[in-house]
TrEMBL record:
Native source organism of the sequence: Hydrogenophaga electricum
Protein name: CoF synthetase
InterPro entries associated with the record: ANL_N_sf, CapK_Type1_Caps_Biosynth
Domain of life: Bacteria
Length: 466
């Protein structure tokens, strides 16, 4: 007989509190890791745990020894692309490129052209090794923070590898599957309260994860977040640094410092040093940074405390630095450029990410340092601060029909510039934006050329402040 409960039932917070205390916390962790996760993996036709074991074996080998395997994997990827992907077959064959040279020295990659978002959009299906109708696949849209968005298609093994990478990295920092984690997610205005329990609830149980759905980051919203953290007591939380920085500032203002979790895992946007320091100090936690892209998944992670930079996950990708205007970004920085090693449906070879940083090869591996780019801002909506990624989630998933957007805070009210997608409708977009944020924006429908570019490199930003 169905329970007919809603996710906002007053009994559920009590159940969360009880489940976060011993001994139920330990029992829940054991069931999640050793029973629910394998069942969910089977139901979803996933193969994550074998790939996790593969990663564990790979990184037990010293970097100097596994480097030859990396060269072989890069060579195999390029050879496969030349044989199966029309774009690479035409482009690389015209160069007379021999992939076997990469088995001796990865610097031979420099003979191949760069891949950009413009090329991906232009080539479309010619970047696929198989028609999408013939293979189980997952589409992932890039965020657009470093250029106009495009869609990347993953095959199922690549998606499973991506999930295994997250599990592996978290294990390396002490967060095993038995320990609870919490994910910050956007609360969409006007969403109905979902039933409980749901498919998502079982998924979260299998992953020993819970979600915080947040909207405005005002004092009331931040207090609600903090109360939820105290009730659930996760070992690790995962979210945007701008969100957790706002929470840290609130806790510092109201309590000085306090602790509700052990590790904050940052992702999705650049984490500034001042944010990292404030989060660690006010929230009394370890801060770990990771670097990922919609195009490749997580490719670098702070695996060891105290080690500067994020270690490139050489099992998943190889990284180079493409040249940039060093007068503006520093002589030792370049554009991070990746060759993905897992996704055979849509291989990305020498893909320019749009982010800047340094690539350093050390005895223990390759590290990304001084990464800059993809900065998110806080935007006041009717006097209440909102994170840019929250606004982007609403525009992408609830308004729809939007290819790109930009908020210009230099006027009152702020200007919301929107580039309509080919399937979008300006009147419908206007109606939905006004429904979510009445009177908050002066809405303008523009073309990409009309978006404001900022900085010496004319870099696109979702938020323009000056």
């Amino acid at each position: 007989m169905p329970l007919n409960l809603k996710a906002d039932h007053p009994a559920l917070p009590y159940l969360e509190w009880v489940g976060a205390r011993q001994p139920l916390r330990a029992v829940k962790g054991l069931i999640s890791a050793h029973l629910a996760y394998p069942v969910a993996e089977h139901m979803e036709r996933r193969e994550v745990r074998p790939k996790l074991a593969e990663l564990q074996r790979h990184y037990r080998v010293p970097f100097a020894q596994r480097l030859q395997g990396v060269r072989d994997r890069v060579a195999d990827t390029v050879a496969f692309a030349m044989q199966a992907v029309p774009y690479y077959r035409d482009t690389f064959s015209a160069l007379g490129f021999d992939p076997d040279k990469l088995r001796q020295d990865l610097r031979w990659l420099q003979d191949l052209p760069w891949l950009t978002k413009d090329i991906i959009r232009e080539q479309g299906d010619r970047l696929l090794s198989r028609p999408l109708a013939e293979v189980r696949h997952h589409a992932c849209k890039t965020g657009g923070s470093t250029g106009q968005s495009c869609v990347i298609h993953y095959d199922q093994p690549a998606a499973d590898h991506s999930a295994a990478v997250t599990l592996y990295c978290r294990q390396r920092v002490g967060k095993t599957q038995r320990k609870p984690e919490l994910h910050f997610a956007c609360r969409f205005p006007g969403d109905p309260v979902p039933p409980w329990p749901s498919r998502e609830d079982f998924k979260c149980f299998a992953m020993n994860r819970s979600n915080i759905f947040f909207g405005a980051l005002d004092d009331a919203g931040l207090e609600e977040i903090w109360a939820t953290l105290l009730r659930r007591r996760p070992y690790l939380i995962h979210g945007h640094p701008s969100t957790i920085y706002a929470l840290a500032c609130h806790i510092e203002k109201t309590r000085g410092s306090a602790r509700a979790f052990r590790i904050f895992e940052s992702s999705g946007e650049l984490m500034e040093d001042y944010q990292r320091h404030k989060i660690a100090q006010a929230l009394q936690c370890r801060v770990v940074n990771r670097y990922g892209l919609a195009e490749l998944g997580v490719v670098a992670y702070e695996l060891e405390e105290g080690m500067p930079g994020m270690q490139l996950l050489d099992s998943e990708a190889w990284c180079e630095m493409a040249p940039v205007d060093n007068a503006t970004v520093g002589s030792d920085r370049g554009e991070l450029t990746f060759t993905a090693l897992r996704n055979r449906l849509m291989p990305l070879i020498r893909y320019r990410s749009g982010d800047l940083g340094r690539v350093e090869q050390r005895e223990t591996g390759v590290y990304l340092t001084e990464v800059i780019g993809r900065i998110h801002d806080m935007v006041p909506i009717n006097g209440v601060p909102h994170a840019t990624h929250h606004i982007q989630d609403v525009l992408d998933h609830r308004v729809g029909g939007i290819q790109e957007f930009q908020i210009d805070l230099r006027s009152a009210p702020p200007v919301l510039r929107i580039v309509v997608d080919t399937h979008g409708n300006a009147e419908q977009i206007t109606e939905r934006v006004q429904a979510y944020w009445p009177g908050a924006f002066d809405l303008q429908f523009v073309q990409h050329a009309d978006l404001v570019r900022v900085g010496s490199r004319a870099k696109f930003r979702h938020v323009v402040t000056g």
